[in-house]
Specification:
The chain is 79% helix and 2% strand. By secondary structure, the protein is mainly α. The chain has a two-stranded antiparallel ribbon with strand order 1-2. It is elongated and about 75 Å long. This is DUF2157 domain-containing protein.
């Protein structure tokens, strides 16, 4: 058997053993079978060599980079007052990309969509507040409408994807807007 292939198989078996996907006895048997009894050879191969572990690492690296890009866009939204329309459009497009493209970041039990939804919702809230401040600073009803839209979006995401923190945020936001309207 090819050495590279054997290394991948041994790494996967070690991953199964660590994740309790198979009983330890089965994993030990498979490790002995594929390493042909050479224990030193299998000790060099770690769980980090597992294909699932590599996919998980790549996915979270992408999420971190998307968060950094989102933060940079958010900072540019407030630091570039001359380019309000352009930065607002860029941040909005990026936030919508994160909301719609979230399906690409769901690999089995490694679901990164909640992190992307959180980044996107913060970006959309910032865009809403910045747009109101830039274009309609004296109209409070537009601000209230934008806040209600954000809260309804959070409720929708929370309900659809069963994310309790979005559901709670949506309800709390709606209650706070209601209290503001009453007072």
């Amino acid at each position: 058997m090819n050495e590279q292939r054997k290394k991948i198989i041994v790494a996967e078996i070690k991953y199964w053993k660590q994740s309790k996907l198979l009983p330890d006895q089965y994993c030990d048997f498979l490790l002995a079978l594929y390493s042909q009894g050479d224990q030193q050879e299998t000790e060099e191969i770690t769980v980090k060599d597992s294909l699932r572990e590599k996919e998980k690492s790549k996915m979270w690296n992408r999420v971190v980079w998307l968060g950094i890009i989102g933060a940079a866009l958010l900072v540019s939204l407030f630091l570039l007052p001359d380019q309000q329309v352009l930065t607002t459009a860029l941040v909005t497009i990026f936030a919508v990309f994160l909301l719609v493209g979230g399906r690409l970041f769901n690999i089995g039990e490694n679901d990164a969509r909640p992190a992307l939804f959180a980044i996107a919702s913060l970006l959309l809230l910032s865009v809403s507040l910045h747009s109101w401040d830039a274009f309609f600073p004296s109209n409070t009803f537009i601000l209230i409408g934008l806040l209600i839209l954000n809260c309804v979006l959070w409720l929708g995401i929370g309900r659809k994807h069963q994310l309790i923190f979005f559901t709670i945020s949506g309800y709390v936001g709606l209650v706070l807007v209601g209290i503001f309207l009453v007072l």
